[in-house]
Design brief:
Strand content: 15-25%
CATH class: Alpha Beta
Order of helices and strands: EHHHEHHHHHEEEHHHEE
Structural class: alpha+beta
Strand order of the largest sheet: 4-5-7-6
Helix content: 40-55%
CATH superfamily: H-NOX domain
Length: 189
């Protein structure tokens, strides 16, 4: 039986911090869009603490509201790329790079491991590499709050697109709904 959907406090702290660095420095405005108790809970938590995934959804919607439908996607892509240099994911990235170099299909296979570091009881990933220049990831068994939030679903796709940057390839990640999953199709040249 699945437990309560949770997210690492470090991820939420990273989102708030990244907003301070984003052009126009919307960090203070972002925090003002969130309940004060939630901001305090995030800031006071240890980075390795687990917090309610609702906080991630609230931050994502607030970033969308502040930056707009296109800019919020750029925000999440760049924030994700930045997080690959952070304490939770850096070791994973270094290991993957030593093992696989810049092969995107191989990098994609590490998404489930990275997800497990950041989220608990928030779905599971399957990875398929049907062609030389294509990878499909499916996120299944999402909690209702996550699966019903199109803004959050699209932000996950934008975050995944940072893998294109890591692999140094020109491509795209297309997000599509399926009956029991969200599909993220990577294509590149």
């Amino acid at each position: 039986m699945a437990g309560e959907p949770l997210v690492r406090a470090r991820h939420l702290k990273s989102l708030l911090s990244f907003a301070d660095e984003w052009p126009g420095h919307p960090g203070a405005r972002l925090r003002s869009h969130l309940p004060e108790a939630d901001v305090r809970a995030i800031l006071e938590a240890s980075g390795i603490d687990w917090l309610d995934v609702r906080l991630d959804l609230d931050i994502t919607r607030a970033v969308h509201e502040l930056l707009g439908p296109d800019e919020y996607l750029r925000f999440f892509r760049r924030q994700s790329l930045s997080s690959f240099q952070g304490p939770l994911l850096r070791t994973l990235v270094d290991t993957a790079q030593r093992m696989f170099g810049l092969q995107l299909a191989s990098w994609a296979r590490w998404v489930p491991k990275g997800w497990a570091l950041l989220f608990r009881d928030c779905g599971g990933w399957t990875v398929e590499a049907p062609g030389a220049k294509q990878v499909t990831l499916r996120l299944r068994a999402l909690p209702q709050d996550c699966s019903g939030d199109e803004i959050w679903i699209r932000s996950v796709g934008a975050s995944l697109s940072a893998l294109l940057d890591l692999a140094r390839v020109d491509g795209a990640v297309i997000t599509a709904r399926e009956p029991a999953a969200v599909r993220y199709d990577f294509t590149w040249r």
